[in-house]
Amino acid sequence: MIKINENYKKLQASYLFSDIAKRVAAFQQANPDKHIIRLGIGDVTRALPDACIKAFHAAIDEMANDATFHGYGPEQGYDFLRKAIAEGDFQSRGCNIEADEIFVSDGAKCDSGNFQEIFANDIRVAIPDPVYPVYVDTNVMAGRTGEAEAGRYTGLTYLEGTRENGFIPDLPSAPVDLIYLCFPNNPTGATATKEQLKQWVEYAKNNKALILFDAAYEAFVQDERLPRSIYEIEGADEVAVEFRSFSKNAGFTGTRCAYTVVPKACKAYTTSGEAVSIQDLWNRRHTTKFNSVSYPVQRAAEAVYSEEGRTQISELVGYYLNNAKFIRDQMEGLGYNCIGGENSPYIWIDAQGDSWDLFDMLLNKAGVVCTPGAGFGKCGEGYIRISAFNSFENVQDAMKRISGAL
Ligand SMILES: *Cc1c(COP(=O)(O)O)cnc(C)c1O
């Protein structure tokens, strides 16, 4: 008899997106002529930068000739891309990360979900709340938790983001071994300072713990004092792995390319306390289960680091940030307290009551769709997330309607 992985039965079905879809459909049916503006999704809306498109086309032409055709590439990614990443994203910012510490992949979602696989099942895991659901669910699937009780799994340590701590969680009071952090944060848009990250790095060092740092939104950091990478903190290369993606900076959500930084200095331990290289473990896992990203996509990603690419990406990110600022200013003008939207495409808004009440009001009175914070965890209750991923015209229209409705 084929038996299931019983851990899958513990997973809490998220009704969030189906609930949203139902309410939106009901509204549309009642108001067939009303144009609904969606500011709820975490997907980009603008075309790939021209530099990427050119490189993409040229690489496809190479695939059309026997002489320049590419078959399987190195599982970790082509050297040209690993070098461009190490220099462009790290060495240029004073972080000592080498090309052979970069593992190219088809997504930060898969990497941040898969990474836990190389660790023991009885490690203690700390996960932020509110949170990008991938971190929690993959640990549930692996069997690191008990059942869910009132929306929280037993056996996990939740790092609470609250109004009081500005959605930058405090260090855990009981020891943990694996820590997930995401800055700039999805869903809250909160950003951590160097001092705050330094505390986490020190904590990890003192506890022989590991930080999994999701920096998918680093390109949105505008304030030069804020870190874009955890490796801007001294010694972080001993205790942190970083996830990056071309999805949000260069619009690769449908093109698929990302990477994970696994420094040589990162160690994990055997039961008897012997140190093992995390990079060796990840390399083994990655080369066994993954066969690299397509050649044209890696060439398109490489173009992100060209002069033309950089200019276009900063324009692209600037466009969404301009939307974000507009949304935040408008919502604050209407008397709502907001987090994010300054170094992040997300604006996290205190709903001054129930998340779903504000969601319904924005939908029914303004025809605008947002995301209720409760879908991201217990600490998300009482908040909504508005995303800046849309056209400026739609954002302006949405804000005009909201102002008129309130
Ligand atoms: C969008 C996003 C990613 C990127 O995922 P990809 O699989 O690379 O598209 C990673 N982490 C967070 C928190 C995100 O919101």
From TrEMBL:
Example GO BP: lysine biosynthetic process via diaminopimelate
Ranges for domain Aminotransferase class I/classII large: 35-402
Biological or metabolic pathway of the protein: Amino-acid biosynthesis; L-lysine biosynthesis via DAP pathway; LL-2,6-diaminopimelate from (S)-tetrahydrodipicolinate (aminotransferase route): step 1/1
Gene3D superfamilies the record matches: Aspartate Aminotransferase, domain 1 (3.90.1150.10), Type I PLP-dependent aspartate aminotransferase-like (Major domain) (3.40.640.10)
GO molecular function, one term: pyridoxal phosphate binding
The keyword Transferase is annotated on this UniProt entry: yes
CDD domains from the UniProt entry: AAT_like
Enzyme class: transferase
Cofactor: pyridoxal 5'-phosphate
Cross-referenced InterPro entries: Aminotransferase_I/II_large, DapL/ALD1, PyrdxlP-dep_Trfase, PyrdxlP-dep_Trfase_major, PyrdxlP-dep_Trfase_small
The keyword Kinase is annotated on this UniProt entry: no
Source domain of life: Bacteria
Keywords: Aminotransferase, Pyridoxal phosphate, Transferase
Catalytic reaction list: (2S,6S)-2,6-diaminopimelate + 2-oxoglutarate = (S)-2,3,4,5-tetrahydrodipicolinate + L-glutamate + H2O + H(+)
EC number: 2.6.1.83
NCBIfam families: DAPAT_plant
Name this polypeptide is given: LL-diaminopimelate aminotransferase
Organism for this UniProt entry: Candidatus Thiodiazotropha endolucinida
